[in-house]
Write a structure and sequence with these properties.
Length: 398
């Protein structure tokens, strides 16, 4: 994310210098202005428009409370954090009434200061998003893409995770990644995100579920992708129903341009709900006979479900003809064209998974990364109404 711009307001030069020193160790924060009085803070806030203002409460002339009131009324985009040696409830109440978002008691550590600034800023971003004008929210065009296969071990999670990251980065869109492999989902491990809450925790609050509430259960990957992890224990999967999945997808549609869903290799009711609600389904296969048989059966099921032909794209992963099955024979068996190829590159894929860094970010020069990025771009073109008629196959392999 971009660095959070901070203005420090304190009548003590030594205090301002100490705070600057503390913040110099943070990669996410930069000090852009300083003020020694409340009056100066109000003027500078209007000129500089900092993201966050650290405001001392006790200053000669216009004190921190009065300055906070002025800034909150006239520059509401700046988040004010009050600093004070007094921690009594009355001081906290006055600060919050004036419009402060946080209250820090001196002395504080560098970690405490940085965490408070980042938390206050992120909470403000969520608040603005939640209360955005309805006209802005109606403009959100959300699309659901499910990555599916009827055979495990074909690379669904690898493709889903890297696809989500590629779309978030190249399209500058809001992307959510949902791990719907409810018993053995690995998305959180693949992206190396710390799991506090999962989809099973979310459904416990099903009665009060809305877009702002659901946001608390998604974890942010450093690429910008928001992740809803699978349950931490396989037995929790049985508590998640098709109704839960339908409501979660509909809620995410209100806030995200793209929702990528990784699924289990089955036609469980939760997976069927995801497939039904999808704008595109990527069915993943490899060139071995057991997988081809299962994928063929899966496509037959989708045909009986009357899914439109253009809703389903066959993606051949670990693509190579060196093991005795030709691409043309594969297409003849499935009675469908291969929509996209992802080349074999075990070294890049396994190293990426073990380190928890998506290869579409760290190894963009590789053919496997280029393939996923091209798939992401093609999907965005199709879903946003500007798709080329030509299949992406030739583009992926030159």
């Amino acid at each position: 994310m971009e660095k959070i711009s901070v203005m420090i307001v304190d009548d003590s030069y030594e205090t301002r210098s100490n705070i600057k020193q503390l913040l110099s160790f943070s990669r996410n924060i930069r000090v852009t202005a300083e003020a020694a009085t409340g009056e100066e803070a109000v003027v500078l806030a209007g000129e500089m428009r900092p993201d966050v203002i650290l405001m001392d409460i006790n200053m000669p002339g216009m004190d921190g409370i009065k300055a906070t009131e002025e800034i909150s009324l006239n520059m509401p985009d700046s988040v004010v954090i009050i600093m004070s040696v007094q921690g009594e409830t009355e001081y906290v109440r006055k600060a919050m009434t004036a419009g402060a978002r946080e209250y820090l008691c001196k002395p504080f550590s560098g970690d405490e200061l940085s965490e408070t600034i980042i938390r206050a800023y992120e909470n403000e971003m969520k608040r603005r998003e939640k209360f955005a004008p309805l006209s802005e929210k109606k403009e959100m065009k959300s699309r659901v893409i499910t990555v599916f296969s009827t055979k495990g071990g074909v690379g669904k999670t690898t493709i889903a995770s890297n696809l989500a990251v590629a779309m978030a980065r190249s399209g500058k869109k809001r992307v959510a990644l949902v791990d719907l492999d409810l018993q053995f989902g690995d998305v959180a491990i693949m992206l190396n995100v710390s799991v506090k809450n999962t989809i099973s925790d979310l459904v416990k609050e099903f009665g009060q579920l809305d877009d702002s509430f659901a946001e608390d259960y998604l974890v942010t990957h450093f690429s910008g992708v928001r992740v809803l992890p699978a349950p931490v224990k396989p037995e929790y999967a049985e508590y998640i129903t098709a109704n839960h999945v339908e409501k979660i997808i509909n809620i995410l549609r209100e806030s995200y341009n793209y929702i990528i869903i990784d699924t289990s290799a089955s036609f469980h009711e939760t997976v069927l709900t995801s497939l039904d609600m999808s704008d595109k389904i990527l069915i993943i296969s490899t060139l071995d006979l057991p997988t081809i048989k299962n994928v063929k059966s899966g496509l037959d099921v989708m045909e009986t479900l009357n899914y439109p032909q253009d809703k389903i794209h066959v993606v051949l992963n670990k693509a190579s003809e060196q093991f005795g099955i030709r691409f043309r024979d594969f297409e003849d068996v499935l009675r469908r064209q291969i929509w996209a190829y992802v080349p074999e590159d075990s070294q890049t894929v396994v190293t990426s998974a073990n380190k928890g860094f998506p290869f579409v970010m760290t190894r963009t020069e590789t053919k496997v990364a280029r393939a996923i990025i091209d798939i992401a771009n093609e999907l965005m073109r199709e879903l946003e109404g500007g798709a080329a008629k030509k299949s992406p196959i030739k583009r992926l392999f030159g």
